[in-house]
Amino acid sequence: MEMSELQSIEQVLDDRVIEIARVAKVVKGGRRFQFRVSIVSGDKHGKVGLGVGKANAVPDAMRKATERAHKDMHSIVLTGTTIPHEVLGKTGGARVILKPASPGTGVIAGGGVRAVLEAAGVHDILTKSLGSANVLNVVQATFNALEQLKSPEEEAARRGKDIKDLLPFWERRKNA
Description:
The protein is α+β, with helices and mostly antiparallel strands. Helices cover 35% and strands 34% of the residues. It has helices at 3-12, 58-71, 111-120, 135-147, 152-159, 169-175; strands spanning 14-27, 30-42, 47-55, 73-75, 87-91, 94-100, 107-108, 125-131. Strands 1-2-3-4 form a four-stranded antiparallel sheet. Strands 5-6-8-7 form a four-stranded mixed sheet. Strand 1 and strand 2 (30-42) form a beta hairpin. The longest helix has 14 residues, at 58-71. The model has no long low-confidence stretch (mean pLDDT 88).
């Protein structure tokens, strides 16, 4: 890819700052402070990435985090404006439950989970964060959950069922 193509791709990405934290390293003479910035980047069409950057100044840390988020993009499976099925993501002590929701519900999520889902392009979803409230772990648990999603087409083929049997209940109600 040429440089102009890369710049145009990066311009369409939605970057959201999740956390800016001052972290310290204890050394012989006292404490050395740095800033840790966590950023989620997504194209609002099923691609999303997480980047964490550390530096002595916030702008440098943000630049590093943004670059890492753009390099670490994951594709996720979407069914219209929601996810295909319920899923539980785990990282450390954090647990995140993601449930598909009917159109018009909106993103029912808080903090980091909302940032990840909106950057990924999910418009209707129900979520619940359990366990640890550590922002970074909750965001990583959300990524873990999104990576577990399976496409309805592949799952129907694997089970030998019709795809209509795997659609969310509001889709089945419409078709009946």
